[in-house]
Design a protein that fits this description.
By secondary structure, the protein is mainly α. It folds into three domains: 91 residues; 154 residues, Glutathione S-transferase Yfyf (Class Pi), Chain A, domain 2 (Up-down Bundle); 79 residues. The protein is 70% helix and 0% strand. Helix 2 packs antiparallel against helix 3 and helix 6 crosses helix 9.
């Protein structure tokens, strides 16, 4: 039976209903997703078989059939995109959030370049070039629909990246030519800087969508997709290397224990941790706390003594100053506040 638009709309309804049932179940495992992928692929094959055949000589060429196959699959996925994409995003919501947080963290650390790509990463200085057009291409990835559309965006991004680097090298070092053209690793790093700057929100969903529902991806786009995956893996490894190591600190329980020991003025050894470096740190902390406490006590005693002498002084008329209990207490509190501020 020849395929027309009305027949196509009717034939795709059961498949859309099945996808909706899978999405509403709320429990997805690998077998269900693989089964769904096979059903969609089988429907694409049936649609290709039902497509009207061309009588022209060009219609019998392998290149024409390959292009027709890719086009039919893309049309089918356009009609299924709203359901499939919502399902994929639901499955990878946590992974997408984690990767987006990673990109935001790396961007705040200045590893995205912010003008010149590759700054702060493992890249030669001569390859740290601005990549504005490539960034614009990659930023549109979340707005693409089908797996083919997303593959095309990634491929165009890589092509723009190469065009930027080629143009920059020709301007800065025309004699050297392409001898300093980026290697595969450097290409991965350059694409990583674009991913950091774009801070895409659905990277894991995009990779899964292309892998499971991009059935006839053109070979020219596959390499760019593999580079994109390598860039994500590079960023995840980079995050583990750039995480700051926390210095050995004090727990709240340890601070409370030290305060109790100082309060009771016991001379026993402090046995909190067995690490010699941390033990020396504890002892130094105790000594500094004791000195600070003695200096504060000495300063307070001097101020109280001076305040007591001022109470007994008389004014110019030989009368004792009027020192009520409230005014005396007020001055003592002010004195104590001044000591704390100066300390």
């Amino acid at each position: 039976m020849s395929l027309n638009f009305s027949n196509f709309r009717r034939s795709i309804v059961p498949l859309r209903k099945y996808i909706g049932e899978v999405s509403s179940s709320g429990s997805w495992d690998g077998s269900e997703i693989n089964h769904l992928s096979l059903k969609v692929q089988r429907f694409c094959q049936d649609a290709l078989i039902s497509f009207p055949k061309s009588l022209a000589v060009s219609g019998r060429s392998p290149r024409f059939h390959e292009t027709l196959k890719i086009s039919v699959e893309n049309i089918v996925l356009i009609f299924l995109h709203d359901l499939l994409w919502a399902l994929v995003c639901s499955i990878h919501r946590d992974q997408d959030t984690r990767i987006h947080s990673l990109l935001t963290s790396l961007y705040r650390q200045g590893l995205g370049g912010r003008g010149r790509a590759g700054r702060g990463l493992e890249l030669r200085e001569e390859l740290c070039v601005p990549l504005p057009a490539a960034l614009v291409e990659l930023s549109a990835l979340d707005q693409a629909n089908t797996p083919l559309d997303r593959l095309t965006v990634i491929h165009d991004t890589v092509n723009q990246l190469h065009a930027h680097v080629r143009e920059y090298l020709e301007k800065t070092n025309p004699k050297q030519g392409y001898s300093s053209y980026p290697s595969q690793q450097e290409e991965t790093v350059l694409l990583s800087t674009l991913i950091i700057q774009s801070r895409l929100r659905h990277i894991c969903s995009t990779i899964f969508y292309i892998k499971h529902f991009g059935f006839s991806s053109p070979s020219t786009l596959v390499y760019s997709f593999q580079t994109f995956q390598c860039s994500i893996e590079y960023l995840e490894k980079l995050d583990n290397r750039t995480k700051p190591t926390q210095p050995p600190g004090l727990k709240l329980e340890d601070l409370i224990r030290i305060a109790d020991r100082l309060e009771r003025r016991k001379s026993e050894e402090l046995e909190i941790l067995t690490n010699p470096v941390q033990e020396l740190y504890f002892r130094d902390l105790i000594q500094r706390l004791e000195l600070c406490s003695m200096e504060l006590t000495k300063t307070q005693e001097e101020h109280w003594t001076r305040l007591g002498r001022e109470v007994s002084e008389t004014d110019e008329e030989g009368r004792k100053e009027d020192r009520s209990l409230l005014s005396l207490l007020h001055q003592k509190l002010l004195c104590n506040k001044t000591i704390l501020e100066n300390g």
